[in-house]
Amino acid sequence: MPQQLPALYSSTVDTQATRKALRLQVRQARRSLSDEQQTAFSHMAAKHALESLLSRKVKSVALYLSNDGELDTQPLIEGLWQNGVDVYLPRLHPFSAGNLLFLRYNRDTKLLKSHLGIWEPKLDITQMILTQQLDVVLTPLVAFDMQGNRMGMGGGYYDRTLTNWQQQHKPLPIGYAHDCQQVDALPCEHWDVPLPFIFTPSHCYEF
Prior knowledge:
By secondary structure, the chain is α/β, with parallel strands linked by helices. 27% of the residues lie in helices and 20% in strands. It has an eight-stranded mixed beta sheet with strand order 6-3-2-1-7-10-11-12.
């Protein structure tokens, strides 16, 4: 098994400066992984995630296309396709700023780069699914801690998407990250949505 990077330390002082510094620290840690480590870790995480998702008999999973050193989702996407699970990708809502739409993703889906520099599916309402119809939303994250707290990039897209998931019992939010993105404690805000599960190359965490 490839050697894991040590967990990073963060202060629990709840300030924007702390959050910004932590984002920079963890993003640098994941970007420093070699191509060999990235490949190995992505397949290890995909194995954990696929076993868990298939055991839950999920039919629809939303995830994202990786960038900026994120754990590569492509091995998991391939595994879901091979097992007949519908895969969906987020795209920025064209009329409601700060919100996401989810569109079905397959090998023929046309992708466009958003103004954030992230690849997303071309808008096609025939391929769209309502968030509450999804079984699982696999969320990107910058850092996480052992209470299931998640820190994103600061845009709040997934916090808004998942605000009511506990009342509706769908979709189940699951984090997906490198082991080096674990920190001792996150400075959280009241709008941050904690995650019940996080998959990494070495663990399946349940909170």
